[in-house]
């Protein structure tokens, strides 16, 4: 079956077309430039941008896949988690397409979509797999027994998300928003100093994360440098910050694999584009005998193909469609890949 996937949880209007594990079309319209001057996503602005981008983005996705709307067999949409108004635009559009086409509607979980998308690139996921989701809004470790029906949360951030920490530290260092790619780049020029920042929740026996103490440590370092008049070496601070983040993320993710006897780790979400995270994850997975799967960066950030990919799994599992009364759920738990 041909699945149309619609994603509007944050600031990307994503539309994907998937058949099984085959990616046929993937179009994304982002409103990120409209948020730059605010230093973060403004929900009202994001909702309006989704409204304007929705129909043209669906049309571009159909055209690029070389299919017609009438060929679609099912419509999948992000039901949550995400921004309330943004989710509502996507869910309303998906209901309209499903009704107009006379095809079933599936409201699916955005976070689980970030895991499901890997199958478009690397084929069927071994069962079980561990997934590390690292994005602007989330930092979660999941045990994925079955991507359509059985996902268990192992741990989460107790404060800031990893991407949020990158964005906040970038602001402290006067780097542009979104800060992740800028810190990644700056860090490649630094790292020679003896600077070392704390590792949040290191060795605490949980799979939880904490990044706000790290952010505060960076802020204090910047203040101290300002006060003493010593020059701020942005590259070294970026490198030391990044070392702390990727050390904890990869340590806990690999521990989760080893301690639960799981031999595959998937890393996804916008921060999975980070070069240091990729390099250290590769090294530690190789040492632990764990297979590492990271989708290409385009599929790691928010997109519609990930929602279509999860929709395809849900349809293949024979789960009943969502009702046309489907409501958005801003905090849909990962234990619900399919919203009712
Ligand atoms: P959600 O959390 O709901 O998935 P989001 O839009 O915040 O939504 P993504 O689009 O997946 O998440 O990722 C954006 C985040 O990824 C931003 O915080 C950005 O700074 C971070 N990011 C992007 N590239 C890199 C990189 N190379 N290194 C570190 N962080 C990065
Ligand atoms: Mg985004
Ligand atoms: Fe996301």
* Count of individual helical segments: 12
Distance between the termini: 21 Å
Would you tell me the overall average pLDDT? Answer: 96
**Number of beta strands:** 10
Order of helices and strands, N to C?
EEEHHEHEHHEEEHHHHEHEHH
Per DSSP, what share of the residues sits in E-state strands of 2 or more residues?
15-25%
- The gyration radius over C-alpha positions equals 20 Å
Shape: globular
Contiguous uncertain segments of 5+ residues = none
Helix content: 40-55%
Strand line-up in the sheet with most strands:
3-2-1-4-5
Q: What structural class do the secondary elements suggest?
A: alpha/beta
Bound compounds, each kind once, are: adenosine-5'-triphosphate, magnesium ion, fe (iii) ion
Main location: cytoplasm
Enzyme class: transferase
Catalytic activity: L-threonylcarbamoyladenylate + adenosine(37) in tRNA = N(6)-L-threonylcarbamoyladenosine(37) in tRNA + AMP + H(+)
Keywords: Acyltransferase, Cytoplasm, Iron, Metal-binding, Transferase, tRNA processing
């Amino acid at each position: 079956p041909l699945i149309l996937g619609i994603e509007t949880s944050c600031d990307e209007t994503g539309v994907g077309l998937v058949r099984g594990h085959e990616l046929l079309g993937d179009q994304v319209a982002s409103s990120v430039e409209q948020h730059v001057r605010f230093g973060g996503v403004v929900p009202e602005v994001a909702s309006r941008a989704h409204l304007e981008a929705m129909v043209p983005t669906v049309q571009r996705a159909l055209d690029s896949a070389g299919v017609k709307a009438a060929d679609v067999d099912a419509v999948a949409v992000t039901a949550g988690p995400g921004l309330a108004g943004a989710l509502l635009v996507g869910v309303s559009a998906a209901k309209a397409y499903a009704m107009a086409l006379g095809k079933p509607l599936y409201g699916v979980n955005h976070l689980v979509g970030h895991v499901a998308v890997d199958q478009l690139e690397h084929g069927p996921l071994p069962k079980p797999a561990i997934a590390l989701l690292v994005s602007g809004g989330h930092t979660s470790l999941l045990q994925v027994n079955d991507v359509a029906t059985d996902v268990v949360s192992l741990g989460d951030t107790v404060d800031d998300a990893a991407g949020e920490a990158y964005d906040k530290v970038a602001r402290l260092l006067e780097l542009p928003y979104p800060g992740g790619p800028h810190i990644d780049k700056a860090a490649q020029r630094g790292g020679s100093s003896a600077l070392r920042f704390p590792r949040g929740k290191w060795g605490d026996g949980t799979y939880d994360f904490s990044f706000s103490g790290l952010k505060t440590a960076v802020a204090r370092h910047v203040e101290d440098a300002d006060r003493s008049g010593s020059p701020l070496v942005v590259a070294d601070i970026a490198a030391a910050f990044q070392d702390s983040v990727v050390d904890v993320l990869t340590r806990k993710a690999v521990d989760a694999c080893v301690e639960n006897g799981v031999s595959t780790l998937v890393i996804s979400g916008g921060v999975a584009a980070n070069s240091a995270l990729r390099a250290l994850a590769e090294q530690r997975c190789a040492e632990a005998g764990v297979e590492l799967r990271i989708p290409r960066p385009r599929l790691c950030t928010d997109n519609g193909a990930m929602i279509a990919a999860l929709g395809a799994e849900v349809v293949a599992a024979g789960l009943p469609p969502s009702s046309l009364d489907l409501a958005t759920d801003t905090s849909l738990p990962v234990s619900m890949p399919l919203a009712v």
